[in-house]
Q: What sequence folds into this?
């Protein structure tokens, strides 16, 4: 089949690579491949750490994708020659004070009901596991929440896709996609993987600004820390080459995604309270991007109900989970392209759960503007 | 005369432009013109705000150069067409608490003995002058401490110098300068204006790291604020286009000039305590560079005592005052090139004050390494 993928973030690239690998003829269109939320993402493969009451379908989806990652990473690395820095030391969920610990235990309740492994640690045990920590109230080890470097994953996927990735902005058309210059690309299916930019097509997707800060330093933790520090959520992610990623804010607005002074101070202050040795770390980069949020925090995976000459498949709305969910999303989209079927674990995330007409066309926008 | 200037920071560029304007044949050599401390500098023309006990010669030098700036700025702008954003609203010296105010008054004592104008303001008057301030203990208006945008000054000077600026690293030679590829440039005088990099030539110059942060936001002060905020020195400099520069740390070490987490948090936290409206400002850029510090905080202006076929003139060690002192330094160097004379105000800053042999050659370095 001939497939057009719109959007070369980690989700679009993973879908494209899976389709190519299974013999399809694919083109990916993006004016700035890997330049959106993928560039800001910390790369936590952390379904347990993200678990929340009322989101068990999303937890199951995340666990299913997390289990694909080790093999996926190995395959990408072998095929592309790019080391994507998969780290399997687990994650430490940390409460700085007792209120923070209380909040952390609400996540543990969800994990217990779902049979997901975790190990609670007292203050002393927490520092034994992670000597860079300050005097924290307590922690929990999540042995199966790993992390990866999303920029390197994008690099590996771009390397495997080669000139199938075209630097151009494309819009959905009944029989394919169209470009700004009026030319068109006809195909058998269109995959929409435009992240937060999907809001112009899919009104349920809203932009949620996130800021991450890249540090470089010696005194850094040996595994991912997800913490609340006197009420402030913060994570500290170690990477190869002495890099540490600190994140992430969540701000709901549609203005340009730029880091604010207040957000930077809050994140860095929380990070150094948690890991005092970061005080002297170099500040290498501050990145702000829009995440694609949805009403129930779950992605939109599957075909739209919009009539058209070719199926329009959505792979959008991954919110905080784009990196984690990329390999599973790729399998779901490939299964649908080939069989018109969606694997069971992804069915709760059908676009139709938000009702009909979940995709707008330029014509709809014009209509709205006139009414 | 044919003159080689090594270093295209604001000092080297100003010297070169002055020499060109007076009919000399000049070349400036720098691998990255305008890319050193000039790039980080906030551009305060603030001799009064920098005044300190025991540094009255430096204060006089600064006042003399500050008085050149309005005409200098007008000339640069007219000749280059670049608006360098000279702002003459003065500076507010601010004490956040009463201890900070106490510290500020030590600067006022120096100004009083030197007959420099200032106007003390109580808490109410301070906020009347500058409504963006938080509840500060008090302030002092320094009506003659202005500011300019150093990147635009460098742009104007680079524009006026055109292809006289050569992107190459040059070293001092007895009869001129030499390049990495072994070629040489013969001339009648060499001006060394290499900022903190002068330490390899002039052992009295030491690198002092400084970090400045560029913000963009609406609620910003109308003039420069120089403050102590619960002991932390910070300045907030408004610029054209909504830009605000926050600075500056001072850290004494020779490692790579990169911003640290601790410095960024301290600066931004102090800035938002002083001006709460900056909380929502965008963080646009964090810049760290080395200032060229000297034992007495004054620059080295004039000829070295090193025997050589051509005079070697130093215009280095400007520490925190490179932008302020650039026009006067240019006049001093030009006067020396033309007449072998140094204007009276600059005589206390002769390189000879640090004793003989203040300039090393590659041969000296080799000797040191062997001894």
A:
């Amino acid at each position: 089949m001939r497939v057009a993928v719109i959007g070369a973030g980690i989700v679009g690239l993973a879908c494209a690579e899976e389709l190519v690998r299974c013999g399809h003829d694919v083109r990916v269109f993006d004016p700035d491949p890997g330049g959106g939320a993928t560039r800001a993402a910390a790369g936590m493969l952390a379904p347990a750490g993200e678990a929340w009451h009322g989101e068990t379908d999303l937890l199951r989806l995340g666990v299913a994708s997390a289990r694909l990652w080790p093999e996926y990473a190995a395959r990408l690395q072998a095929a592309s020659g790019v080391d994507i820095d998969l780290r399997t030391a687990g994650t430490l969920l940390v409460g700085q004070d007792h209120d923070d610990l209380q909040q952390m235990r609400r996540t543990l309740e969800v994990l217990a009901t779902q049979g997901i492994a975790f190990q609670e640690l007292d203050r002393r045990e927490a520092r034994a596991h992670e000597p860079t920590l300050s005097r924290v109230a307590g922690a929990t080890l999540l042995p199966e929440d790993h992390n990866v470097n999303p920029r390197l994953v994008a690099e590996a996927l771009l390397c495997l896709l080669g000139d199938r990735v075209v630097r151009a902005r494309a819009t959905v058309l009944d029989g394919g996609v169209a470009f700004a210059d009026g030319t068109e690309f006809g195909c058998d299916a269109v995959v929409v993987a435009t992240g937060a930019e999907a809001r112009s097509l899919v009104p349920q997707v809203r932009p949620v600004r996130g800021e991450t800060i890249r540090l470089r330093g010696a005194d850094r933790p040996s595994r991912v820390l997800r913490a609340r520090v006197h009420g402030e959520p913060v994570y500290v992610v170690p990477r190869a080459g002495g890099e540490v990623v600190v994140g992430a804010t969540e701000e709901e607005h549609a203005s340009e995604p730029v880091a604010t002074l207040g957000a930077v101070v809050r994140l860095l202050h929380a990070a150094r309270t948690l890991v005092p040795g970061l005080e002297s770390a170099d500040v290498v980069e501050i990145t702000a991007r829009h995440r694609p949020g949805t009403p129930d925090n779950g992605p939109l995976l599957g075909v739209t109900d919009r009539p058209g000459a070719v199926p329009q498949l959505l792979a959008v709305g991954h919110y905080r989970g784009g990196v984690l969910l990329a390999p599973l999303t790729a399998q779901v989209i490939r299964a649908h392209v080939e069989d018109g079927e969606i694997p069971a674990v992804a069915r709760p995330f059908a676009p139709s759960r938000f009702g009909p007409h979940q995709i707008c066309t330029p014509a709809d926008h014009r209509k709205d503007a006139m009414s």
